[in-house]
Amino acid sequence: MYRIGKEEIDAVARVIESKELFKVNGGPYHETENFEKEIREKLDTKYSVLMTSGVAAMTAALIGMGIGPGDQVIVPGYTYIASAMAVVAAGAIPVLCEVDDTLTIDPDDIRKKITKHTKAIIPVHIQGYPCNMDAVTEIAKEYGLLVLEDACQADGGSYKGRRLGTIGDAGAFSFNFFKVITAGEGGALVTDDEDIFRRAMIYHDASAIAYFGNQLDDIEKDSFCGTEFRTDEIKAAILRVQLTKMDGILKDLRSVKTAVAKAVEGKLRVIRSNDADGDCATTITFSFDTADEAVSFAEKSGGVRPIDTGKHVYSRWTPIIRKRGAFNPLMDPFRMEANKDIVPEYTEDMCPKTLEILSKCVHINLNPDWTAEQIGALADKLIGAVK
Ligand SMILES: Cc1ncc(COP(=O)(O)O)c(C=O)c1O
Fold first, then answer.
1. Ligand 1, from 149, 153, 180, 283: best to mutate by most atoms within 8 Å of Cβ?
2. Ligand 1: which of 174, 312, 320 to mutate, judged by most atoms within 8 Å of the beta carbon?
3. What is the CA radius of gyration of the chain?
4. For residue 149, which of 173, 127, 128 has the smallest C-alpha distance?
5. Closest C-alpha among 343, 365, 287, 60 to residue 196
6. Which residues are catalytic?
7. What is the atom index within ligand 1 of the atom nearest the CA of 57?
8. At the N or C end, where does the chain have fewer CB atoms within 10 A?
9. Structural domains in the chain plus CATH codes
């Protein structure tokens, strides 16, 4: 959470005073409808749906893509567990893939993980670092796979001039407390594909879409049971303000990152990026020759090694590693008949390259509101932390 205050308070007050908090009624301000329109315009995409969370957006996107039992989906071994859980929630099986020195999905390993059951790839723009989308889209095209971009940590980021989340078949964003923009919780799905949009709309709120009039034409024709990831006008009102701040936050984060990188040049090694200009710059990450050097630097600098970030590392995804896909065994994708030949053996060391890379890096979180003095003090601390 970076910048939130009076404008968001006013937006919330306006909705409460209108006494119209339900998105379908929309009240005088149509906050949800307008947020969805404004994010489409900002990102240049055809369809968008605001939802309760990033994982809601990802699950709805996968359902919208037609993914389910019998399908494998390739997920990098360095991402929040939610990326893999969304696959399981859709009834499909996550197949783990290495990351490379950019900390994002390794295109060479994607190729090795493709089987005749692979249906999709989830490139994750982790810490706002853009994946190599040229390589991912080329592989997807070659093998006829779908691409769902997990941009949950990358609101507003870009790759070669295109916004993250809009390059694949669909993209998902999170607006939880830790993201570039926030409403405490929240998420959005974007896509240019009308079928993905319609099915995701139905899944995210099947009962209301069918019940409340004209949100989709011909709903009865396509309708199926879904869940309830609907949001309210208060969340949308906050996010409309946050969206107007997003590019300013990113601009300032990027200039902080450039200043820090310049100040430590020659003393510390910044990791390679697939697009340094499009990176959200929420973090600056340094790589070291050994894990011991990274441990020592993290201790002295106040940074954190990615390997020590808990459920962001596949080896700590306990319910996945233990194949506990649901409480009721009959609803557990890991035990479904359709998946019986496609569940891999998950072991804690199945992505050794990922573990090695994550153990030799250190993240330092950045803040767009830092002054030149604060940046200077951080740079001194970082230099002092190098052995
Ligand atoms: C990479 C990634 N994917 C998905 C999610 C899920 O987002 P949410 O917490 O909004 O469900 C997160 C959340 O932190 C995330 O970091």
1. 153
2. 174
3. 21
4. 173
5. 60
6. 179
7. 11
8. C
9. 6-242 (3.40.640.10)
Is residue 76 in contact with ligand 1, taking CB distance under 6 Å? no
Nearest to 188 by CA among 176, 167, 200, 173: 173
- Which DSSP string do the residues of 1-60 spell out, in sequence order? ----SHHHHHHHHHHHHHT--BTTT-TTTTHHHHHHHHHHHHHT-SEEEEES-HHHHHHH
Q: Is the CB of 173 under 6 A from ligand 1?
A: no
For residue 156 and ligand 1, the question of a CB distance below 6 A is answered with no
Strand partners, 189: 49, 172
Q: Is the CB of 176 under 6 A from ligand 1?
A: yes
Task: Decide: 306 in ligand 1 pocket, CB within 6 A.
Answer: no
Q: Choose among 370, 327, 313, 320: nearest CA to 344.
A: 320
Beta bridge partners of 50: 188
What is the Å distance from ligand 1's center to 357 Cα?
22
Q: How far is the CA of 151 from the centre of ligand 1 (A)?
A: 9
Q: CA-CA distances (angstroms) from residue 3 to 157, 178, 248, 255, 260?
A: 17, 12, 10, 16, 21
Q: What pTM value is reported for the model? A: 0.97
Per-residue pLDDT of the chain (387 residues; tens, 9 = 90+): 789 999 999 999 999 999 999 998 878 899 999 999 999 999 999 999 999 999 999 999 999 999 999 999 999 999 999 999 999 999 999 999 999 999 999 999 999 999 999 999 999 999 999 999 999 999 999 999 999 999 999 999 999 999 999 999 999 999 999 999 999 999 999 999 999 999 999 999 988 888 887 788 888 888 999 999 999 999 999 999 999 999 999 999 999 999 999 999 999 999 999 999 999 999 999 999 999 999 999 999 999 999 999 999 999 999 999 999 999 999 999 999 999 999 999 999 999 999 999 999 999 999 999 999 999 999 999 999 997
Cβ of 70 below 6 Å from ligand 1: no
Closest ligand 1 atom number to CA of residue 174: 10
